[in-house]
Structure formats: C-alpha cells, structure tokens
C-alpha cells in the first residue's frame, strides 16, 4: 500500500516525491531480497536439522552385524523392530523367527516345570537371547538333560537375564544376572560380545525390556 501511494504522487507530477518513491521501492526490494534469503537459510537449516534428527534416530536403533539383514527380512508385521517395541518380552521372543528354541524353553514347552513367561513379562529386563543356531550347537545330550533337570534349565535361562532395561548406551561392563552370576559385555559400534558370545543384533526394544540376539548359549559359573 505504501508503494502504491508514492506511484500516485509521481503520476500527478511531484518529482521530489516521485524520486523518494523510487528510493523507497529500491529499499523495499532489498528488504524483500533479504527476507527471501533469510527464508531460504531457515528452510535449509530446518532440512539439515531434520536430516540430523533422522540420522540420530537411525543411530539409536538396534546395532550389530546382523541387524540390517533382520530388518530387511522383517520390514513389517509382528517381527518388525517397530512392532516388537509394543510387545512384552516373551511375546517379542515368540515373534522373532530365530528365537523358537528359547521361546520353548521359557514357556514350559521344553520342560513343563519351567515357565518364566509371567516373570519375564512382569518386570523390566534385559535379555541376552541365544538364537536357534546357538541351541543347535549344544550337545544333544545337554538338551535332553534340560528337559528333565528343572534347576539346571532355570539357572541357564535366568543367567541370560539382567534386571532393568539396558540400552546399547549403558550395557557395557559387568552385569549381574537374575541367576546371581555376572556376565561381561564388551564392544563398540556394531561389534559386541557377551561372555565371548557375539551379539548378532542388539538393543531391540520391547514393551518391558531390551533384547540382544547372541550366537551362543551362556553357561553360569559353577
């Protein structure tokens, strides 16, 4: 509106006001250019912030050499990392394709006298979960023993469980298990071990805990 008024004065022949109007237009154009530049800078900063936030979110996800393959194989559905975060520990274990033996062991299917479902779903825990290949590597005689030796099976299973939810940021170090013994967690980046067993994919969040898929069955100290 200000610029339009000056143009009207120019039309009726007031030269001085016309000159002033031209100067004002130049000033306004400069301001507009400055505003556009500021808007571009703001937009660029916002994009950089979004990219940074996305990178941080990605970095905060599960880590391990097998995570990419797991996510690719389970992009959606109950086994996806996203949906596992809404499930209890035992529900999540039951939906992870490579934890069928562990699921049987904690739910009374391996040994009817050992059922830890209520315990694991009733608190906050970190679980170092041996995958099926880890159990398959055990001596078959050991598996047969676990089917009847309730004390031995309970000790082994609870030795894989640590009270509290330990994310990848705070899992390193000596951790005391529910069984009473300790496990040593070491590593950085994508490479972690638990008592020497490799973490395939760790830091998977569930509704009441954090799961680390490992390639070995841990044995409690005698």
TrEMBL record:
Return the GO cellular component terms, semicolon-separated: extracellular matrix; extracellular space
Has the keyword Lipoprotein been applied to this entry?
Answer: yes
Signal sequence span is: 1-23
InterPro entries associated with the record: Adhesion/Biosynth-related, FAS1_dom_sf, FAS1_domain
Q: Which domain of life is it from?
A: Bacteria
One biological process term from GO is: cell adhesion
SUPFAM superfamilies, per database record: FAS1 domain (SSF82153)
User: Which residue stretches belong to region Disordered?
Assistant: 29-59
MF-aspect GO terms: cell adhesion molecule binding
Where, if anywhere, are coiled coils annotated? none
Domain FAS1 residues, every copy: 86-218
Keyword annotations from UniProtKB, A to Z: Lipoprotein, Signal
- Keyword Nucleotide-binding assigned to the entry: answer is no
Among SMART domains, the record links this protein to:
FAS1
> What protein name is recorded for this chain?
Fasciclin-like lipoprotein
């Amino acid at each position: 509106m200000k610029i339009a008024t000056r143009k009207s004065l120019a039309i009726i022949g007031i030269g001085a006001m016309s000159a002033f109007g031209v100067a004002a237009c130049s000033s306004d154009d400069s301001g507009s250019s400055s505003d556009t530049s500021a808007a571009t800078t703001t937009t660029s900063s916002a994009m950089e912030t979004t990219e940074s936030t996305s990178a941080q979110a990605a970095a905060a996800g599960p880590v391990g050499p097998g995570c990419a393959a797991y996510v690719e194989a389970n992009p959606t559905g109950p086994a996806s990392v996203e949906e596992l975060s809404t499930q209890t520990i035992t529900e999540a274990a039951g939906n992870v394709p490579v934890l069928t033996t562990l699921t049987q062991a904690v739910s009374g299917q391996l040994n009817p006298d050992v059922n830890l479902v209520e315990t694991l779903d009733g608190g906050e825990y970190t679980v170092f979960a041996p995958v099926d290949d880890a159990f398959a590597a055990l001596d078959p005689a050991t598996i047969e023993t676990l089917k009847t030796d309730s004390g031995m099976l309970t000790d082994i299973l609870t030795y894989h469980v640590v009270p509290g939810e330990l994310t990848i940021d705070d899992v390193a170090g000596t951790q005391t298990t529910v069984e009473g013994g300790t496990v040593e967690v070491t590593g950085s980046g994508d490479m972690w071990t638990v008592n020497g067993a490799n973490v395939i994919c760790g830091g998977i969040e569930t509704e009441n805990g954090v799961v680390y898929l490992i390639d070995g069955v841990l044995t409690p100290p005698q």
